[in-house]
# Entry
Amino acid sequence: MPRRSILLFAGVCIAIAAAVAVTTVVMVNQRDGTIPPMETSTGQPSVGGPFQLVNQDGQAVDQTLLDGKWSLVFFGFTYCPDYCPTTLTALEATKQQMGDRAKDIQIVFVTVDPERDTPQALKDYLSSDGFPRGVIGLTGTPAQIRTAADAYRAFYQKVGEGDAYTMNHSLTVYLMGPDGRFRSAIAHDLGPERAAQVIERAMARG
# Structure
């Protein structure tokens, strides 16, 4: 075989091998149930940051709410017909899987629908049977919600008009460490047992 053909053949083989390697990494990440964090040029995950919101008791809070606890943060809304209630019940099951270790975890529910989700609406919703006790509900002005969502790279969009509108939104649960910094993004369909494993591994790493 001519030398040029040999070199071309070798190049194709290397390209195929590289593609297989990338695919393998993606598949491993999916099986693990975590989503690789987006990083800044400094190598630090660019998820999370300052926010100023109001909790379901009408008290002003900011990002220091996350200090000292492992936090599971996700964005949704009280009129959500499926994902949000399913996520809340799944997170309760995850905490049950973790036993005593769950005492260091708090769940933070940030609305993407501040037009309807007043502090009282959040309080009523989060007191529903089957939801975890002690969930922290957060709302605010549309601008405040946008700032918080942008900090977490969370997508949301209003769909429809009038009273019947709904909200499209991203489905990621963000695991934040007791220093308020991002640790892992947990896939929404991971299941309580595997989600508990992801959290426990993060806690072991600190």
